[in-house]
Structures are given as C-alpha cells and as structure tokens.
Amino acid sequence: MTMGKLILTVDDSRTMRDMLKLALSEGGHTVIQADDGIHGAEVLAQNASVDVIITDINMPRMDGYGFIEHVRQNPVNRTIPILVLTTESDPEKRQRARDAGATGWIVKPFNAEKLLAAVHHVAG
Amino acid sequence: MDPMEAIKQTYFQESDELLLAMEEGLIAMNNGEANDETINAVFRAVHSIKGGGGAFGFDQLVKFAHGLETVLDDIRSHKLETTPEITRVLLKAGDMLSDFVAAVREGHAVPEGHADEIAAELANLSGNSHASDSDSGDIEGLDFNPTLISFEESSPAAPCQKGWRIRFVPHPALYAKANEPILLIRELSRLGPLDVVCDYANLPDLAAIEPYQSYFAWDLVVRGEIERGAIEDVFDFVMGDCDLEINELTSGAQAETDPSVLPQKSEAPSKPVAAESLPPPSAALGAKPLVVATEGKAGAAKPTIRVDLEKVDRLVNLVGELVITQAMLSQQVHDSNIPANSPVNTALEELDLLLRELQESVMAIRTQPVKSVFQRMPRLMRELAAQTNKQVRLLLEGESTEVDNTVVERLSEPLTHMIRNAVDHGLETPDDRVAAGKPAEGTVTLSACHNSGRIVIELSDDGRGIDRERVRAKAIEKGLIAANAVLTDEETDNLIFLPGFSTANQISNISGRGVGMDVVRRSISELGGKVVISSSPGKGSRFSLSLPLTLAVLNGMVITVGDQTFVLPLTHIAESMRPKPAEISPFGASNHLLRIRNSYVPFADIGRLLGIERGAYVPSNGVAILVESQGSGRLALGADNILGQRQVVIKSFENNYRPIPGIAAATILGDGRVALILDVDALIGLCREKSGMSSKIVERKTGT
After folding, report:
1. Which of residues 24-63 of A touch B (CB under 8 A)?
2. Given 3.40.605.10, 3.40.50.150, 3.40.50.2300, 3.90.226.10, which CATH number is that of A6-123?
3. Lowest mean pLDDT: which of B103-112, B318-327, B588-597, B622-631?
4. What value of ipTM does the predicted structure carry?
C-alpha cells in the first residue's frame, strides 16, 4: 500500500467536491478543497506539501486551464501532478489542458477505483 | 446517513441553486442582456448538473443535459449566434432540465416524449453549427478507463515469448507536466515481466546540463499476453510529449534489450499523432495565465457559509428567551422601586438596546431575498403565455429584497395564483390589445420593496382592469350582495376576494374555477399580511401585498379579560375605544352591535367567545377594540382593559401543545406569565358561529 497523499481538489460543484473527498479519503489520502481556480491558487500557496492536484475545468473566476498555467508558472510547483476532471472526450479540450500543463485526466463520471488508480498513476 | 446519500442530497440542493442561476442567465440572454460571463455561468450550471448526475447514474438527465450543454458551448465559443429562436429553445430546455432533476429527486419516471422533442431541437441547433462534428460519441467516450492499471501481477511462471518492445523518449514537455517516467515504467511492470534499459547516451557533461532538458531514453521489453491498448493506456497521459514506439516482439527473436541493437530514435512515433490532433498554437496561447472572469452581478458573491435552518431557529429562540428574561428583569427592577436614574436602570436600558440589535441581527440571518420565489415566476409566465396564446412580458423588480425565510416559502402559492389570474383574466388577447391601442405584448410587473418594517409585494398588469359591471353582476347572481346594494369602486373590486366568486365566463384550466382570490387573501392573511387592489378600467390592475418581515416576533396589544392576559396582533387592530352605553345596541337574542361613527359593527365579548368565567360584564366599563381581518370582515372585541403595546416573541402552540380555536400562539410576558395571542380571523369565525350570522352580513351600513 502506498502512502496517503495530500490532495488538493478544485471544483466549483459541492457535489463533486464531496464525492472526490469521499473517494480519496477512503483511499487513504488527505483532501483539501478549493472552489475555483483563484481559491485553488490561494490554498496551494498556503500548503507547500500538496502532492497531487485534481481540478475541474469549468469554474467561475478562474477556470481549470488558467489555474493549471498559474500553478506551473511557479517553478516550485512544476513537479506537482495535476489531474483534470473532464466530461469531454473532445481531444481539443483535453489537449488544451495538457498544453496548460496538466499531467493527466480523469473522465467523469468516475468511480472511486478509477480515481484512485489515476492518482496512483501520476503520483505513485 | 450513507455518505453517498448525503452527497446525493447535496447534489439536489446544489442543482436547485444551479437551475436558478441557469434560468437567470437564460433570461438575460433572452433579453439580450447577456455577456460572455453570463453565458459561461449558464454553461457551467448545466455542466455541473450533468457532471453530478453522471456520478449518480441519472443517464437520461445526463444525456439531455449534454445536448443543452453542447448548444451552450457553441454559443460561448461563438460558433453559434444567439437568436430569439435559440433562446426560446434554450429556455424550454432549461425548464425541461428542471423537470428532469425534479423527476430523479422524486424518483418519478422521467417525462417522455416532450423531452425527446426538445432534445431534437437542441441537436438541430448544434448540428447547424458543426456540420460534421462527431460530438455525439461523447457519452460513449466518457469511458476512458484507467482501472486497467490495476491489473494483478498476472505474469505466468514460464517466460513468455510474446510481448512488446518499447522505445520511450520523453520530451521536456513531459516533465513540464509533472509526468514521471519511473511511474510509467512501474505501471508497465504490472503488465508483465519487464526489462528496462536506460539510454543515457545523450547526457552531456555536467556543466552543460540544462535543468529543464530531457536527456534520458528507455528501451523496455514487456512480456506476456498483453493487448497493445493496455500499453498505450499506460502512456495515455504522455502521448505527444514523448517519442514512443511500440513493436510486437517477433516470435523468433530474443528479447533483445541491448541499446545498440534497438532501433534508433525514430521521428515517427508508432502511434500517429493525428489521433490526438494538436490544436492550433493559438488555443494554448489564448489562455492567459490568470483568467479572471469579469465579475458580473452574479459573480460578485460575498463569502457565505451554509447553516442548518434548525441552528438558526434555535438561535432565534434563544434570543427570544433572552428578550423575555430581560423584560422580566426590568419588571423586577421596576417593582422594587429602584430610582429611575440609578446605574441599574441605565445598564438595563443599555441591555435593552443591545438586545434589540441582537434580535434584529439574528432575524436578519433568517431572511432571504424574495428572489427564490420570484425566480420561479418567469417559467410560469412562459407556460401561461403559451396556454392562453397571449403575449406577456414579466418584469421583476426588487428581487434582492429580504424577508423571513418562512414568509418567502409561503409566498410562492399565492403569487402563483395571482399571476395566473393576471394573465388569464387581466390581460387581453393580442388582438384585443392592439384594438385598444396597446402593444400586443402585455406587461406584468412583480416587485418587492421594504416599507416601514413590512415587505410590500406588488403585482401589476397593463390589462383591461377589473370589469366592475361584471363583478357586480356576478356578485348579485351569486347572492353575495343585494341587487340594490350601493358599493364604492373599491368595495366592488374587493368582491373578487369573496369565497366562491368567479368572473371567468368560461372556466379555464389556468386560474381554475375562480376560487383563487379568496385563497390568496386567506394565505396572505395567515402570514399577517394584507391585500389591496387598485384597478382602472382599460389600464390594468395592481395587487399590493403587505407582509410582516418576520413571523417570529409580533407587535401586539396586551389586553386583559377577567384574570387572563391576551395579546392582539397590532396588524389587525383598526382602533380602540371606550364604548358609551348608548353605542351598544342589542341585535337578535344575544348579540350586540357597536355603533362606530355612522356604521354598526358586530360586538363580541372575548370572555364569552372563549368561555372565560368572570363576574358581570358591562361593555361600557371595558374597552372595545375594532379588529379587521382581510378574509372575514370587521368585529369589535370587548375586553376589560388595555395594558399596553409590546413586541412579543411568538411561541407556537401547534409545536408545543395542540391547536386551540381562537388562539394563534402564546408568548411570555415581562412578568413571566404566559399570555395567549388571539387569532383574529378565528375569533370572527367563532363570533359568527355563536350568533348564527351569515357571512354575507358581517357589517351593515347605516344610510349610504
């Protein structure tokens, strides 16, 4: 069993935040939450030890693309894996997230198993 | 509760908010007031509803939301221009989505037929914009499956000759996205026995190493009955950020892993790049590092927390108790003859002020904008307009006006009724309107504002106004007024509030059988409110509702009857007086009428109505309080004495005991005694029962 990670989830939907938290906690991870990109950046700035970021794309104030680019701008954060939550199988959108610096993606709807596997895939 | 069940509840709660936001945005789009952020917000709302719905397996909802989302996405990316036709479809689809959410919440079957129709209209819209886009595969496409990774270490004991040779050359971009080759290699090792050779031929001298460059490459051989797809899945996240060659081991060949015999770096990765077609560079550059959406009025949300209503109610209750305790303390101090200018009294006054402020603040927590009710009306209006073939525009004003949560909840029904009436009876058909020199489209305005401690909600329309001739004829026909009754315009207008009154010549399925308005008046009255109509023929009608801001405290008049103390709600009191013996005249066997100026009002002794035992009661020794009820007319109540006017905290009877006719609730007075709050409507009813008076003749005028 791998060590639990500190995971930052960024999503404007309470439902989604709750689901992520439930699934990730059951997988032994610790979850901190933010409800949009700007909030995510603030939370990240205060938590130096975040291991993985899971972010939604469509959010108010700052969307997922902007958030990822913002995270990657800081050299300190270059090695934090970022998983994007997406319902789009549209390659263009997925590519846009990758261009912004996303490490990988999780396609909604996901189950706990999928989610934990994806986290494991990018963070060990 | 099962955590998933709790999340489902969150989903429904959140969906409600999102649906409101969506509708608000759609209406703005419909009115041509939408900017990019409005459209984005609508898109996000639908997107979130779809996302959560998918998590709970609400497949039909997801499918429908997806169609709506696709159109919205086209609009926000300017592939599709909004036209009135499009917003009309969007509004319909929005309503449908609400129905879907409601259906899954209630566990009903999802409405059929109609949904397909709208879905087809949506598909048409998005079909127009991307002629050959195969977006419909999205639902199936949702099934990307990283779980493949979790394959057991299922390597067979004997070395297998089958397998794959992989050359993996990461680009700097791979590292820039925080992908880690070692993790990928570890994932590969789960598929089968793995030979790993690192090719560091490109590694320069230490001094020449650039930190963000990529110097390593790997040659890997994985053995076993492995699908090519399983290997591609491992590299899914890094496709395009590395050179990747995946070649099947040829059966004869030894699994060579010596870098020297492995093929050199090839320019053509085995997986064609076209499958993951790169976007034009502008797509990447277009995203600014900090995409801060312009904050529209919707975005300017203040930070909030969610609190259980129960907790707030407990707080309200505690403050209520505190107010009572303070009143008791004041009473004690007053009774112990402490001088008025003593420090104790000064401190008490201070306490009184602070308590009032505290009470207001706590009450403010319970308030919410009337918006939550108002928001439901546009949809109603659209449906009504469609059913009646009338053209209607609904204007909402003062949506942010705040009022107690309970009041908001109970406003919905009467408002719905009134709007139905306004559209059905008030507004003319487009042809009639044009003939009358008005625009074909009627306007209904719903507004809210605060006015001297009450909330005033007005519903006005620019329709034909109340047809007084017809109202009068109807009232006479129904036996509600005498054929020769002389009524002012205002009195005539008020006839529509009488139970059983209906002016619709033809019973429509919209405002039903005209039973609406008396129900409206009753429910507003139950909230301690009043309804006033003003109407001018040909120009329209205006209904004005005035309601208390809260149901938790009440301004009351404290009166005594025998040894009992009662509170009468001030909102119902018209005036009070000391009746002279000559002003009270017997009526029938045991009833009395009180003459007030030039009219007679039924007079009833509270003691007799409620069965309170006391000595001989002489009305002229006591007081008469004239009370009015919107629903049931006027009545003069006889009591022994008036103690004063006070703000009292309402303690519900139904919650703590059981309903008692004539009593609305209880409260605790400053001296610690419980006083009952009288229910004026019920008292008038009781009075009628006891006297056998017909509801028609509650009050009779002297002269004209």
Report:
1. 37-38, 58-63
2. 3.40.50.2300
3. B103-112
4. 0.82
